[in-house]
């Protein structure tokens, strides 16, 4: 489970996906499979979560990695490149952005 802390020494990545309600479940299935079968087993992976808006037009993915380089190395693998080509066909756009936690509230 992701833990959000300003003092954490990890890399946070938030990826947003835009899609139609007709492809939302297909995209969720592809992302869930990617995490179950591949991403979660990569070096440096800590945790992730997938969130769907009520209109099923956006998915937000929050992931945490030990280091920025771990996330980048996962993206560069042939398997993830192949998966991202499939994911790209299921949505209008997606963009992973690396963040630093500026504040956290309990």
From TrEMBL:
Record keywords: Monooxygenase, Oxidoreductase
Gene3D superfamilies: 3.30.70.100
Pfam families with a match to the protein in the record: ABM (PF03992)
Entry annotated with the keyword Oxidoreductase: yes
Gene Ontology MF annotations: monooxygenase activity
Residue ranges occupied by any ABM domain in the UniProt entry: 11-101
InterPro entries: ABM_dom, Dimeric_a/b-barrel
Protein's name in the database: Antibiotic biosynthesis monooxygenase
Source organism of the structure: Shimia gijangensis
């Amino acid at each position: 489970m992701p833990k959000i802390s300003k003092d954490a020494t990890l890399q946070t990545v938030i990826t947003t996906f835009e899609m139609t309600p007709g492809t939302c479940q297909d995209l969720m299935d592809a992302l869930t499979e990617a995490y179950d079968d591949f991403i979660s087993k990569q070096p440096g992976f800590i945790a992730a979560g997938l969130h769907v808006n009520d209109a099923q037009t956006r998915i937000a993915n929050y992931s945490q990695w030990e280091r920025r380089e771990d996330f980048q190395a996962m993206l560069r693998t042939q398997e993830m490149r192949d998966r991202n080509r499939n994911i790209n066909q299921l949505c209008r756009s997606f963009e992973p952005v690396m963040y630093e936690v500026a504040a956290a509230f309990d």
